[in-house]
Amino acid sequence: QGSKGEEYDLLVIGAGATGAGIALDAATRGLKVAMVERDDFASGTSSKSTKLVHGGVRYLEKAVWELDYNQYKLVKEALRERRFFLDTAPHLSSWLPIMIPINKWWQAPYFWAGTKFYDFLAGSENIETSYFMTKSKALDAFPMLKKDNLVGALVYYDGAHNDSRMNVSLGMTAALYGATVVNHIEVTSLTKDENGRLNGARVKDLVADANGSSDEFNIRAKGVINATGPFTDSIRKMDDQKVPEIVAPSSGVHVILPGYYAPANMGMIDPHTSDGRVIFFLPWQGNTIAGTTDT
């Protein structure tokens, strides 16, 4: 914990996955870092994911059919980073087999080729290769699937993790390396020197003292990073009220269902829903997460 009067090399506003990652990276490079969060760590977007350490299988189809090299590079990078993630935090992440239902015979060779190419790209980054599952075994795993047109299923491996716990771990590790990490501290304004250059922020302690009052003070820093996600523009406007907004908000929905919708050790993906989007059914702490990341 730092003192209120000292100057930091870097002030990170926001302690979600991005902010905590930046704070950790900067602290391990020897910078003097302060990170503040107005709510709790991972209280925003960073705790509301699909709980996957995604290898990018959804982008592989686009890379192949549209000959999109950037999508291909994205898949390769995601596979590499997935392995780093699983190796670094095995207590918070694990491999998860995910089933793709096959409802038409022609889909079997199509999805088989796709998952095998995915295995090939993963190489040593993968734990097991994809495999075909018979109709009976697919129904054993997900008995609520429509039986009429079901041919079978293909199973590939991806990563799953506890997003909020990982976020907290990043913040705690940054603190271990010397960063000052504080939650329930709200930035109320940005401060500038006599030349108009940002030199920190005015903050308010949202945890009231015994008398019901909240402390306000300045944090001085040579650099300020805005890692507030969907609230990015509100921080930017503290610097310049006329600045054009750069954030285009999008919403995502995940529905928590009873655990019997998915087995404890396997997830399911429907890559082609009626409206053309992807939907997952994934086991999570005795329940099932169903959803897509965009609406």
Q: Describe it for me?
A:
This is glycerol-3-phosphate dehydrogenase. It comes from Aureobasidium melanogenum. GO terms for molecular function: glycerol-3-phosphate dehydrogenase (quinone) activity. Its cofactor is FAD. It is an enzyme of class 1 (oxidoreductase). With 295 residues, the protein is of the alpha/beta class. It folds into two domains: 7-47 and 164-239, FAD/NAD(P)-binding domain; 72-160 and 251-292, D-Amino Acid Oxidase, Chain A, domain 2 (2-Layer Sandwich). It contains seven helices and 14 strands. The protein has helices at 17-28, 57-65, 69-88, 107-122, 135-141, 163-176, 232-239; strands at residues 7-13, 33-37, 52-53, 93-102, 131-134, 152-161, 180-183, 185-192, 198-205, 216-226, 253-258, 267-270, 279-284, 287-292. Strands 3, 4, 5, 6, 11, 12, 13 and 14 form an eight-stranded mixed β-sheet that branches. The relative contact order is 0.19.
